[in-house]
Amino acid sequence: MQTTRNEDHFGAVIHHLSLVRNKRCLMAYMYNRAEIIQGLRWKVGPVLPQEMQEKVNYLEEEYFKDHSAAIESYMSEMDLDLTVDMVPPKDPYIQVRVLDDIGEVCLDDHSISLAKHSLHFLRRTDAEPFISQGLMEEFLE
């Protein structure tokens, strides 16, 4: 009689330990998925592309939206855009080519005439707004 009690006890312990192991595996899987979804925000922006939406379930999509909203709220509260310059620039100055006639522009330290097809050596921070508007491009020799 004692043997069957031990067998039942050890069987229950083994079953419990396998449940704990399975729980740890599922938690690691969910943690990994959450990290991937958080990383997507920095790669694709605040809107999840359609091909990505097909690969996540409803709760993961809601997690992505909530995470994006938290980042947006933080950035607006701090008046800081964390999405620019994810990789630090090699040089604070860049050479740019003007794609459209912009005219006379006042920069932080001087004013400059930006004529179409002209090349200029500007601070990256001065040139980035024009590059994002499509008025300039970085000139790589």
TrEMBL record:
Protein's GO biological process: DNA strand elongation involved in mitotic DNA replication
Record GO cellular component, one term: GINS complex
Alphabetic keyword roster: DNA replication, Nucleus
Domain annotation GINS subunit: ranges: 10-78
InterPro entries according to UniProt: GINS_A, GINS_bundle-like_dom_sf, GINS_Psf1, PSF1_C
Location(s), subcellular: Nucleus
A family per Pfam: Sld5
Sequence ranges assigned to domain DNA replication complex GINS protein PSF1 C-terminal in this UniProt record: 90-140
Main location: nucleus
UniProt KW Nucleus keyword: yes
Family to which this protein belongs: Belongs to the GINS1/PSF1 family.
UniProt-listed PANTHER family: DNA REPLICATION COMPLEX GINS PROTEIN PSF1, PARTNER OF SLD5
UniProt name for this protein: GINS subunit domain-containing protein
